[in-house]
């Protein structure tokens, strides 16, 4: 996982320049069009950008979903067809934008961050949306379209809920989906925190530390991106753009609520992760203290004994005095001493293993 | 205690969808209606939602209290009867909402968090309130209705205080009750802090650390939920909704005051808990230092002595020289040395026990 | 010192309920009235609340000071007499309010926190003030009235300074006194910090740590209460209440200045206290390191020597070779070795005592 | 790298005083003029300030780029020619200004900080810009002009993009270039962070600590300068100065976006760097604990053994008893013991080396 | 250096009371008057306050500089002469005010903090300024007037720059001087930080810790005072007082810029000082770890060797076996062993000294 994930042009490049990105994201391009009116829903996969022209000219609402890596050429064609602003098109290519909403003359341009877990690793996929009078274009760099549930809702209700409202309701539905995708991610992070916490209180080790650090880093990344997302929704609500209709505001408010809740959860998770680092440090200090204590006790007990033993060299040995080290004259004295020493060593090793020191 | 406690729909679910929650909260449903006019108070337990219709049509004020787990069906019936907004109904089911106040056309929707201690563990129960022209519906997932004291006040004053004021006064009374319930919780946390502090300064151990961590976590959770509660009351005061009457503002201001005070207490408690973690770390360092010092002193004293003793092997022994280790030739020399060593060992063990090192 | 010091009603109690507090603060009640006009000052001790009626009816300014524990009955009488608001009266009884200013129809209600040191322990006494057209009622739970200097100023100038201005000037004088009482408290805390700092840099011990913790806690408490006090004065200045006259604003600005200065001092004191905890931790680490170093040096020097000595068992003893341990054959060899060992032990004990390790 | 990098006049110097800076930055002066109209672009190197007069008088747009160290004399000549404000000229000489935008009567004065890495060390070069009706003067203390890409864009498009817009578009192009130069710097810092992180988790040493400290310091410096840069662009957007035309605002918004993104990256990098310091501390504590454990285990095992061995002085030796230390009487007993000891020493040294302790 | 440096009246003292301060600052009083018109500059030392009356009555601008300790009597005379407000006069005496600007009817009252280093110790001298229609009175408690450079500028330009502008330009010149005096102080602190940093990375000791603490403390103090100074200048700029003329605003903006820059430097210095404390802690931990490692290695190597040696008591000695400890029978065996031990001790002492452990 890299710290710097922003695509940017060489400084000094003219604004609105469209350059082919490095082929890191080579998901194949696919275009899907969903056209709905009060009468019904029509869906088709597009081969060429121009195929959508005839849908635009009818009074219907048209949702053009473009998945995978878009080439600068395709973007330029789309730009000409829909009269999209150069700066906005540039932002579609340069992934890693802050979520934002920009009002241009002919369309609203929205970038949002779609949070998902990929093998447990957080990814924040940039979704770019153009909203015109009666069309919405949505760019998603993933090969797999995540917005199928929305499409299903359009189909199921035969488009009634969506057709009776403007294209901004579709924008809300997509944003709501993007925002709510944060909940399962946070739930997973919450589970991680609980696991780490119980590890910390039971037997913390080096892996625990690395795991806390990794989690903290992902929380930081997520917060950096989702904080402006909240602002983006807030400014969509405040915006006086005529393309966002007053009757959609109550839905955006709901979406805003969720966004704020996610931020607050993130903040408290970060606080807990920081607090866990302290806990880890305390646990290590505690353990150092424990080892010290054992060493101190054993050493302190034996040091004076060894001194006394040294004083006399234990030259008490005198075969005639039965009180003076008779062990020295016993036949198996020497092997017995070795036996005693082996038993003590084994006992200590067992004890250390049980205390997880060895 | 889990970190993530929010109920949420599968992302992409249509707004306002009501789905049966997992059966975790299976408190049985009970409905209680309190109807009051200037003339008197009427109370009854409802079996079916429809039973409250006739109370609504009179000019009286009606408080419908619904305790326990509500089924989506019941919610839908209530929604149709009172013309409640779908998004609000969804929030009633999806517990774990941030406290908020939403103005809909036909009603005000308020969610609040009711703090309580369950066996010493903090719980924040979501209370959902709908306020119409002359009715208030209050959802509480607990089996046991916590709002009996309010009902008693309505009864005692024969409803005069409540009837002479609008239904918003009942809203205030409930919110005030919810907010003030924070005080006993904080008082209990304050007591915990004091106990922990005295433990820390006397003889901190691993349990103390875990306890501070747990307390900090609960304070963090409580703050995350109660902070928006303060904002909710503030926006109720600022709101230009005609359902909140100017004469109720002075009461809401009082409630706001308490809410702010709780937040400030929470913040200072969190500061103290953080400071205690530092104190714990210092205490551990102190103890490590103490053990080190004892080891150092004893070892440092005996090391040169043992060296000297080693040098001479103590081969001074010479039966003819009364100054040269006469102990070696004493009859009970050897047992006496053993005796001395046992006494020393016992003394040290006793000393370590007294210092709580063993 | 307890963490939670707020008095509160049982949640669900009706607003404005006056209940006898627990008898913790049983300072006897005393009432003192100061009445002043351009002509002169009149002072008397009141036995009953009603005695002040005749002063109210004249055009004079009347200051009613009530010290000690007020009973709910007395409060209710005062409330009826002066038409005081129920919520305000409740706040007089429930000590531990945040400082605030509330505008009611017939009076301004102000609560302030009077900081004082009681045997070195911070106490924040709640002063409650009602300001009407030409009267001011001041409640102070202390037996001893702290506002004598103000009364003296009224008397000394024969009331001229006070009489030529409205009753709000008296309010200012009292608030100014309350705010300025923070300076000696902070001066004492500043002295404590200096003492602790020099202790820390010289020879920190466990008491130092506890003392820093205690100080930090008191600073935290003081800040929690005095921060809203600043806001209270600010909102008194901004208030459009006709009872605060424009010519008093220049004085309130001065009072505000002092309040801000106290907050800034508090904040920097807290910063220093936190920094001192770090310093303490460093000092402990330093000391551990020192002990370790001594142990390491002595042990490391003697370990190889002891090994060598062990190798030869020092069996060089050979009475015929004058170079081979002649000490063994000296008459007083053995006692001399004991002597040497006792001298070394004594020297080390003396050295450890001097370094304060023993 | 020094902490204090601001050039300032002796306090008390009259405002607008131009004094020769110390010769630290002695890059030679060079002046380059780019003049463009709808018809075409003209470029030339200037020898004397006066040479640009005739370009100013035409209706064309003129960009005067001045690189290297400017003498007070040259500044004064420019000031007279273009009627530049004294305070602004002073700021050109006193490098280390906060980025800001000042509206003077005859020109807009902008200072910006151009971030670059010089052998891995962050430098923030002050760029000063004067924007008049149809001219822009840009001061850059570097010998090498960094703005060649912009000049190329003017040339390439034959100035069309630039000539069709006002001189404020050139200002935007330069600011955009300056802001975007932050991205490669941050990318490099991000790489450093990743390297440090993996070092920390693998085998942290003293160099790692110094490197984290250095990085944190550079991030702090960069943040201190780039934070006001964001404000500067924001106030350029809000400014009602007629020299910034509404059609440029959409471009400045883009530039603002980048600026905010850089700040947010910086903040999260700083958070990570701080968190890494904690990680380092934990790693050290961990390692201390490890060494302690090994010492404890080995010492604790051998201490009782050595005691036992001492007790018997191992005087079992008795040539007649084959069970009593027959090794003592073996011919090569002594050299074999030495051999065993050398093998043990070698083994331990090898073990310590492998654990990187030696 | 004391933590609490505010002079304050006994709480309850009437506002505007002037009391002789304790004689801590007994710099002798001196008064200097600078009077300037378009025609010329006149300067004289005043003996009595009344001597300045005739300058006030002319249309000229008059700057009255009062250095040293002012007695309450002198202040009262000045107050009567210039009609200065009581509260302002009190603030002149009670040093340690927050920088502020107060608009009174007849004059503007400004207090500012003049930062200077006295033997390396930060001092923040309170400068009090009264600005009337055509006079400025400046109080400075230092014996030595710091504002000579300003006076020189008035003289040099023969007062033209100053006379063509109002008295507010003199106010600006003084404030600018006061603010800019922060730069050399910060430069010195920056140097201190660099020295401390290189000490920390090379060989940190107890003095380093105390020095960081002292620096942090001074930075904290400076920030506490200079933060309101920034606000003071900002409110001078916003102020609608007619005594501050619009043409002076551009200069005040410059002064504000410097003030903000100083605050930002202070903040980043504080951040670095805090980070250095962490660095110190890491360095100490590192060192503890190092000592531990050496002890562990040496002890661990010798412990088993000593055990083996103990087992055999090294009773191999057998004069007949040339392989069995022939050293015991060599003539100079014993002195040679002593020699070896002395060499080892010397070597270790030398090694410890080189590593700075001894």
Q: Can you walk me through this structure?
A:
5 copies of one chain form a homopentamer. Chain A is of the alpha+beta class and 358 residues long. Chain A has 2 domains: 30-282, Beta Polymerase, domain 2; 314-358, no CATH class. Chain A is built from 10 helices and 7 strands. In chain A, strands 2-1-3-7-6-5-4 form a 7-stranded mixed β-sheet, with helices on both faces. In chain A, helix 6 (167-180) packs parallel to helix 9 (246-312) and helix 7 runs antiparallel to helix 8 (206-238). Chain A is rod-shaped and about 125 Å long. Chain A starts with 29 loop residues before the first strand and ends with a helix. At the A-D interface, helix 8, helix 9 and helix 10 of A face helix 4, helix 6, helix 7 and helix 9 of D.
Q: How is this structure best summarized?
A:
Chain A is α+β, with helices and mostly antiparallel strands and 358 residues long. Chain A has ten helices and seven strands. A seven-stranded mixed sheet of chain A has the order 2-1-3-7-6-5-4, with helices on both faces.
Largest sheet of chain A: 7 strands, mixed
- Chain pair forming the biggest interface: A-D, 71 and 73 residues
Order of adjacent strands in the largest pleated sheet of chain A: 2-1-3-7-6-5-4
Task: Kindly state the number of beta strands of chain A.
Answer: 7
Helix content of chain A: 40-55%
Q: Any idea of the CATH class of the largest domain in chain A?
A: Alpha Beta
Distance between the ends of chain A: 34 Å
CATH architecture of the largest domain in chain A: 2-Layer Sandwich
Assembly type of the shown chains?
homopentamer
Mean of residue pLDDT of chain A? 85
> Looking at CATH, which topology of the largest domain in chain A would you report?
Beta Polymerase, domain 2
CATH superfamily of the largest domain in chain A: CorA soluble domain-like
Rg on CA atoms of chain A, Å: 34 Å
Query: Any idea how many domains of chain A?
Result: 2
- The low-confidence parts of chain A are none
Percent strand of chain A equals 5-15%
Family (chains A, B, C, D, E): Belongs to the CorA metal ion transporter (MIT) (TC 1.A.35) family.
Membrane topology (chains A, B, C, D, E): Multi-pass membrane protein
Region (Disordered) (chains A, B, C, D, E): 1-24
Keywords (chains A, B, C, D, E): Cell membrane, Ion transport, Magnesium, Membrane, Transmembrane, Transmembrane helix, Transport
């Amino acid at each position: 996982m890299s710290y710097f994930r922003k695509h940017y042009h060489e400084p000094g490049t003219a604004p609105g320049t469209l350059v082919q990105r490095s082929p890191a994201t080579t998901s194949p391009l696919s275009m899907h069009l969903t056209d709905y009116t009060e009468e019904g829903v029509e869906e088709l996969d597009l081969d060429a950008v121009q195929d959508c022209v005839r849908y635009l000219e009818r009074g219907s609402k048209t949702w053009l979903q473009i998945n995978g890596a878009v080439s600068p050429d395709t973007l330029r064609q789309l730009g000409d067809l829909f009269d999209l602003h150069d700066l906005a098109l540039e932002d579609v290519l340069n992934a890693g934008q802050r979520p934002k909403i920009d009002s241009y003359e002919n369309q609203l341009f929205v970038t949002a961050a779609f949070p998902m877990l990929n093998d447990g690793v957080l990814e924040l996929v940039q979704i770019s949306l153009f909203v015109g009078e009666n069309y919405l274009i949505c760019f998603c760099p993933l090969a797999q379209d995540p917005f199928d549930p929305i499409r299903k809702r359009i189909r199921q209700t035969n488009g009634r809920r969506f057709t009776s409202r403007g294209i901004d309701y579709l924008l809300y539905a997509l944003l709501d989906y993007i925002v709510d995708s944060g909940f399962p991610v946070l739930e997973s992070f919450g589970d991680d925190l609980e696991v780490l916490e119980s590890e910390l209180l039971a037997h913390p080790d080096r892996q625990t530390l690395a795991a806390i650090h990794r989690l903290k880093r992902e929380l930081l990344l997520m917060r950096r991106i989702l904080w402006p997302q909240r602002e983006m929704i807030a400014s969509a609500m405040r915006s006086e753009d005529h393309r966002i209709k007053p009757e959609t505001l109550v839905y955006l408010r709901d979406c805003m609520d969720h966004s704020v809740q996610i931020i607050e959860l993130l903040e408290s998770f970060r606080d807990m992760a920081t607090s866990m680092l302290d806990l880890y440090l305390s646990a290590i200090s505690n353990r150092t203290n424990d080892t010290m204590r054992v060493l101190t006790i054993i050493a302190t007990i034996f040091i004076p004994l060894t001194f006394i033993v040294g004083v006399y060299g234990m030259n008490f040995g005198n075969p005639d005095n039965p009180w003076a080290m008779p062990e020295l004259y016993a036949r198996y004295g020497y092997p017995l001493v070795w036996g005693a020493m082996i038993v003590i060593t084994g006992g200590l090793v067992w004890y250390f293993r049980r205390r997880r020191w060895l």
